[in-house]
Each structure stands twice: as structure tokens, then as C-alpha cells.
Structure prediction request, 533 residues.
Amino acid sequence: MRRHLRWIAPAVLLLAAGTCAEISWRAVRPAIPEIGRKELEPTLGQGVLLGVLGGLRTVIADLTWIRSYVLWERKDRPGCETLMRAACALDPHSRYFWENSAYAIGFDMAHWDIRRRGGYDKVPAETQRRLFHAYARKGIALLEDGMGHAKVTTPLLLTAAQLAELKLQDHPLAIAYYRRAAEAPDGPWFAARICAQVMWEAGRQEEAYRWFRDYWTERMRGREDGFPDDLQRLRTMEEALRITPGRRIERQAWER
Amino acid sequence: MNASFRRIDWIARITFLEAVRQRFFAFLLVLGVAMVLSSVSFRVFDFGHGELKFIADFGFGGMFFFGSVLAVVMTAQLFFSEIDNKTALTLLAKPLSRWEFLFGKFAGAWAMLGVFVFVLAGLLGLVLWSRETELLALAEQTGRIPATFSLSGLAWYALLQWLRLGVVIAVVLSISALARTFLFAVVVGSLAVVAGQLQWIAQDAVLKPTDSPLYEAFLWLTTRLLPNLQQFNLGDALVLGSAGVPAGATGEVVLSGLLYVAAYLALGAVVFRRREI
Prediction:
């Protein structure tokens, strides 16, 4: 009996350690987003395992990205997509991987698929349209995933907007993304102009003018040279909408 | 009790000296140091990460990979050299109990890995600080937000890695107490490290509801027997602030690590008690 009693201390300690680890794991799990992502499963046998185990994740993400580029050159769609997604999963805080993976998936892969099916002459237009839409949606879904992890999200919003505008031809969606990008604290100057342009072309002229006018007044007028090209665009809008002189933006001292 | 501590301390000192004199330790330390120093030259191969993150990752990788190799191989080697050379027989013939011998071996090996981890962490801190200073000056010129790192976070991370390696040493010692050969201890010890790094899969699964009580019992047992080594990998969050670590969570990780060390050492002591030398 005494012989068996000796095993009680290690067993109790293991039980206590395991219970304590369960509590601590729940607390620290969100701080390690790289692990447990399904995108890594197909690549585990290709040298990614070390990155999953711990350490060197950034370096392995870089190597995975280089290998994905080799497959991108060969237009190997499944291999390229798998490795690009693995790079995103290994370093989810990096904007670069999300943005460029979405570009490759959303803009390139539909073309590869059409060529694989016999080329643009053989594949019916309807199938081509369906493929472009399917890959663009995949790209946008990847960007949405990336926005939850990357530190800088504005370039991801712009890429999503481009995919929605050019590939999906979904103007309301493109406007929503451009608008979010323009209104972000680090939003680039061109995002607002493109947003207004897409709104205008989608038939929402009044809304485009009002939004772009507010944006220019609040965020552009007082900065740098006052963004004269954007003001010029607003003047063109005022002309097209036949806005009375009293309701137009007041003339700026520097305006030609 | 004091006499016991003195004997453990005595074994630990001898083990530590024996360990740091070995070429294998020096070789892996030089490799780790070279890895941290070369990270600055390799940063041209970096895509879109923060530069500091890329440099830090080299250091984290060095501590994780070489530290794990050192913990498994050196611990088994230090243990089996005493058995194979029959010095263990001479030592245990003196008023020294087997658990004191085992605890002394643990303390000596852990101290050696402390040197390894804190030398690498110190060097990594120096490299990160020097690059951060350059990046701060560059950021001032370009008006960008500078990249920074946390020195206290690095100290915490080094402490967690040291504790993780302590758990590995305790696991390898309990395996060595049972094993007949050095090779067996190294192979099973390495597998235990890999299993420990992947233990979180069972830990995640155990939190999800399941219909099978057998499966649930298996997961529960797995999470209790294997240490969760992944919970110590908080480098990005602590050093680079990529994600927030809740207050007190690091303390919980430390506590679970210490409990694992105590549990595996106790297990090793029970197994070693009945072993023929």
C-alpha cells in the first residue's frame, strides 16, 4: 500500500499543473493567433511545422512566401493559394501577405483557371464572368479575415474596394470599402476622390457631391496646398448638378 | 532539510560546471549567438513585417530551437554519464538520496540553460535596441510612426522560455529515470517536446462540447499528462505588443510551469527510486 502512495504526490501535482495550464491557456490563447489556423494544415509537411511549434515564424512565413511566388510564376493555382494562405496564417499581423495574396487570388487566378479550361475563346462568357466573381469574392473574404488581424488595414480596404469595383462590378460594396478607407485616420488622399467618382458613376450624384464636399472641407482644405485637383472635381460636380452659386463651395483665395 | 539543500546544491554545482565545459553547449551557444547577430544582415529578405519583429523572431527561434535541443540532449547526457561511468553508484553510496541526486541534476541543467537563455536574450535586447534607435531617427525624418519594442517584455519572455526549458528538463529527467539507454531518453524526450508544443490542440478540443465521453476522457487525460509548452511562446505579444496579454495571465503561466516542473520531478524521483543502477 505504501508503495502505491508514493505515486499520489506526482499524480496530484500533474492534476494541479494541468488544471492551472487550462486556465492560463484560456487567458493567453488570443495572444497567439498564428497557431490553430486551418490554412496551415496542408503545408505542415513542407517545412512549416517548425513555425507552428514555436519561434522563427516570421522567417518561415518569408520562405513560404518565396515558394508561393515560384508557384505563382508557374500559375499553379492550388499550390500557390495554399502557400500564400499559409504565409498569412504564419504571420497574421503582416499586411503585406494579406494584400498580395488577395491580389493574386482576386485578379490573377480566374485568368489561370480560364486558360486551364481552354482559353478565353473556348470558355463561355457566362462561365468566365462566374469565375471572375468567384475568385474576387475569395479575395475579398481573405481581406476581411486579414482586417481582423493585420495592424494596418487601410490598404486592405482599398484592395477589397478595387476587387469589388473592377471584378465584381458591385458598386455599393466598392463604395462602402472606399469610404471606410477614405475615412480611416491614415486614409490616402486618392481614396475619397475614387469613392466620389464611383458613387457618381453609380448614379448617386447628389450623395457623391455632398459626401465629397464634406470630406474636402473637413480633411483636405486645411492641409498642404488645399488639394486643388479635388476642388476642381467638386466644381465639375457643381456644374453638372446645376447648384446655384450661393450654395456652392465658397471661392478659395488660391483658386484659379 | 538544510543538509538536503546543501547536497542538492553540491550536485547542481558539479552538474552545471560539467555542462558548461562541454563543447556541445559552447557549440549551440555560438550558433544561437550567430543567429541573433546575423538577423540584422538577413533583414533584406524580409517582406512587410516590422523590422524589429523580423530581428526578434530570429532570437525567439534560436531560444526555442537550440534551447530545446540543449535541454533534451544535455539533460540526458548529464544523467547517463553518471550511470555509464558508475559515478552514480559512488555518489549514492554516500549519504545522498536518489531524489536529491535527481533534483541536483535538474538544478544544474536548469542553471546551464539559464545562462544560454539570458545570454541570447541580452544580446537580442542589444540588437533590438540598436536597430530601434536607428529606426526612431529615420521615423523622425520621414514623419512616420516609429517601431518600438518592450525591454521588460523581453525580460518576461526570457523568463518564460527558461521556465519552458525547465519543464523540458524535468520531463527528460523523468524519462531518463525509466530509460535504459541515452538514445531512448533523447528520442522519447524529443517526441515529448513536440507533443508538448502541440498539446494545445487537445486543450482547445477539451473546451468544445463533445458527445463521446470516452473521447472527452482521453482529451482530459492528455491535457493532464502532457505539459502545454505553447503557452510560453508569448514573444510577439510581450516584446512587440502585437496582442494584449491579460493582466495576471503571465503569472498563471509561470504558476502552471512551476507546477509541471514539480510534478515531473516528483514522478522522476518515484521512478528513479526503484531503478537498478
